[in-house]
Amino acid sequence: MSGTGPLDPVHVSLDATAVPPHPAGAGRYCLELAHALARRADIELTIWTRSNDARRWVAPDAGGPAPVTIVPVAPSSRPARLAWEQVRLPRLVARLPVGVHHGPHYTLPAAAKLPRVATIHDLTFFDHPEWHERTKVLLFRKAIRYAVAHADGVVCVSSFTAARLDHLLGPLRPEIVSVIPHGVDHALFRPTEPTPGADAEALASLGIDGLGADGYPFVLSVGTVEPRKDLPTLVAAFGHLRRRHDDLRLVLAGGPGWRDASAQLDRAIDASGAHDRVVRAGYVPDVVLPALLRTAAAVAYPSIEEGFGLPALEAMACGAPLVTTTGSAMEEVASRAALLVPPQNATALAEALDEVLRGGAALADRRRTGIAEAGTFTWDASADAHSVLYRLVGTLPPAGGE
Predict the structure, then answer these.
(1) Cβ burial, residue 317 (10 Å; 0-12/13-18/19+)
(2) Which CATH number fits the domain that encloses residue 209?
(3) Owning domain of residue 322
């Protein structure tokens, strides 16, 4: 490597085997990070995927400046995949000229003899084990403890997550922790529709035409139906709102999550007295989601705790009026642009949504602020920070493991 020329690329091994077919949150992070890294000249990327999951990991910008290798080799079932990570992956990585291995979803191969980076998204496996399957709680508590003790670098997706990690398992070695926020695909999540009429067409494709500027106004929620999202509180708040806004609808966009969260949501809808005004849109593809965000009268993200809160940031990028909660990463990301309410408080949530729905100068100011704030978050910036970390840990002897 020349002292005056470009830096030699770092060869990074990225474990993408945990990303589900319809990614949200941590899965979206892994997918977007992989694509952003693939566009870089200073990263050579090897991406490990499940055996039936190679196509979406091919970088959108084919023929990028540095090599990208997709290896679809991992088994699909979770137990087999986790065993593969610990037993088979270290051997496969050892055959390649890899400089750094990155586990973007908490876990690391303990036997791998090279510098390793782990990403910690949130600490709800410790703070709220009731939100997760018992087997996942045991697995990820162990994985997070291992990462803190043995990783050469730890990525926390927000300062909130870093603080919780330090509080629960610290004091952390400050030299290994990097706070690297997510980004936004601004070509997709933007305040204007790509062509006239595109948003109405997108809503019609979901079977929910008749909503938006030319139809019924609606409050939108985006996120997997799981306990942390606290959708029953949102439904209760909507029950209050319907008395003030006769034509208002509530659109819930998100696939089913764990346990009986969907059943609890159904019961909340029945109890609200507004079941005929609630639309369950299910999982909404990313290509359609911005249309919902742009046409919503308000976006509610009442989650109890998040490591980052990507849907809130994407709502801001689309210019959507946002109401979210205090005391977690959403406040860190959205505090200047959103109305903030205490979590699990239906009355406060209803009042904040009512304020948004009534409009006014403050609403326009928050829209502008949200677009500007979201503009500072990009996946290329996230990849920049990851690249710096990879190069740093790649120059150190590996911390080792057992």
Answers:
(1) buried
(2) 3.40.50.2000
(3) 198-374
